[in-house]
Design a protein that fits this description.
heterodimer, A: alpha/beta, 2 helices, 14% strand, B: alpha+beta, 4-stranded mixed sheet, 14 helices, globular
Chain lengths: 103, 351
């Protein structure tokens, strides 16, 4: 029986966004400003205070900008909030962000 | 024009058999797990012929989170793989435009632990033209357009959007409608205006609406013979606190009324707006059945839950967020479809 050969085409889409280089890691959080981001959905109101307490114990000079400052990063206003986020993070002198923990 | 189209996608030859092609695609995660139709150049150019003289490299949408470019060519390749006919292309293209609208929050839909999948509802004359089912067994098997349009979209979300199950698609349990989820509204037996007309389109327009939706939950009501009686059972069935609409108090819960239920409800004088109002007032769950920790959570967000943090009982959505459509064939089974919590999007189909 004759073998069948299939010439097929590649189904994957070309990625239009290349890899983004990570910002340099913060070696020590003492005296640094940490911004919190949340989608308000996964007990952030309990998780973030615990994180603040724990980090403040280890890095007494650390400063937090609480998630309520930035608004809900998920849902109807998500795109507006994300669009202004970089500027807001600069404005608050952000050194590090906590996102995806407690929403 | 099919023969004159040159494809830009990489080409590769797989010897032996269709089984070998399927193994090759499935092993690389380029499928939904089901066998695919091998996307040969001939088939893909045939699919592209349906979009006229547009450039196959035209980018219809950039699909997050992989930020893949959904060109007409890539859409056609995946449509071939899904088993689509060329006539389905306009629906697929428009559905992708709708999904990439920022109101739909596709990034979240693609990567959430929630099981949601884009539910595609087609209105207008194109539905009949391509044989899309909005009648008996509309969500079930048996009709090529329903089965393959939804499947093509899923393949595109994986292969172009990057929502590889278990990697980027983090759904805790998934759901069967992630394979395909596409119907036409049953406009013929809708006693009210069809959904796209309600959204401001003309009756003769063809539109596609996308919802980030859970599976349908059946509402069996063979007993009540009045509109109010039917709506009471429907509302009670919808009043579940664990659905995302109720939990986040956002998004648009969808009620798909079967034609017999819709006819009775309309005959008894309910407009579609009045149905929504009835659902807002009656699709409510008792807060007494929730745990104290759940109630504490609701009290922490008065801006979201307001009077429904401690009030009794609580609605599953805001009045204007309820969606009412007509779907199905003979029988007295409607269904409730909770959604993810984002917004649906309706766009005109360019066909």
């Amino acid at each position: 029986m004759k073998e069948i050969g299939y010439k097929v085409v590649w189904p994957l889409g070309k990625r239009i966004a290349g890899p983004v280089a990570l910002a340099p890691r913060v070696a020590n959080l003492s005296g640094k400003t940490i911004c919190e981001l949340s989608d308000y959905g996964f007990r952030a109101e309990e998780m973030f205070p615990l994180i603040r307490t724990s980090l403040s114990r280890r890095y007494p000079e650390v400063k937090f900008i609480e998630y309520g400052t930035f608004g809900n990063t998920h849902g109807p206003q998500e795109n507006e909030i994300i669009a202004t986020l970089a500027e807001q993070l600069r404005q608050y002198g952000c050194d590090a962000v906590i996102s995806g923990v407690g929403g | 024009m099919g023969d004159s189209i040159t494809l830009a996608s990489g080409k590769f030859r797989i010897e032996n058999s269709e089984e070998a092609v399927n193994s090759f695609f499935i092993e690389r995660g380029w499928s939904d797990g089901l066998p695919i139709i091998p996307p040969t150049e001939e088939r893909v150019t045939g699919m592209l012929a349906s979009v006229g003289h547009k450039d196959p490299q035209d980018v219809v949408a950039i699909l997050p989170p992989g930020m893949g470019a959904a060109t007409l060519e890539k859409i056609a390749i995946n449509a071939v793989m899904a088993g689509c006919l060329p006539d389905y292309m306009p629906v697929i293209v428009s559905a992708l435009k709708a999904m990439s609208d920022e109101r739909f929050s596709l990034r979240g839909v693609q990567s959430t632990t929630h099981p949601c999948s884009p539910l595609v509802v087609v209105n207008g004359p194109i539905a009949q033209r391509i044989g899309l089912n909005g009648k008996g067994n509309a969500f079930g098997p048996g009709v090529r357009a329903n089965a393959t349009i939804g499947r093509a979209l899923r393949l595109i979300l994986i292969n172009v959007g990057g929502a590889v199950p278990g990697e980027i698609d983090k759904s805790t349990q998934g759901q069967p409608s992630k394979y395909t989820y596409c119907v036409a509204e049953n406009e013929e037996e809708n006693p009210w205006e069809p959904y796209h007309v309600e959204k401001g389109f003309k009756a003769e327009d063809s539109t596609v609406t996308v919802f980030a939706a859970e599976n349908p939950h059946n509402i069996n009501e063979h007993t009540s013979v009045t509109g109010k009686g039917l709506l009471m059972t429907i509302a009670a069935t919808m009043a579940t606190p664990g659905n995302n609409n109720a939990h986040f108090f956002t998004g648009e819960p969808v009620l798909m009324l079967c034609p017999e239920h819709a006819a009775t409800i309309a005959k008894d004088g309910f407009s579609k707006e009045q149905v929504k109002e009835f659902l807002f007032l009656n699709a409510r769950f008792s807060l007494k059945n929730l745990s104290e920790e759940n109630l504490q959570y609701r009290r922490k967000f008065p801006e979201k839950y307001g009077e429904f943090a401690d009030g009794e009982p609580a609605p599953i959505a805001r009045k204007n967020d309820f969606v009412v459509m007509v779907l199905g064939g003979h029988g007295k089974h409607s269904c409730f479809i909770p959604t993810f919590g984002n917004n649906s999007v309706t766009v005109l189909i360019d066909a």
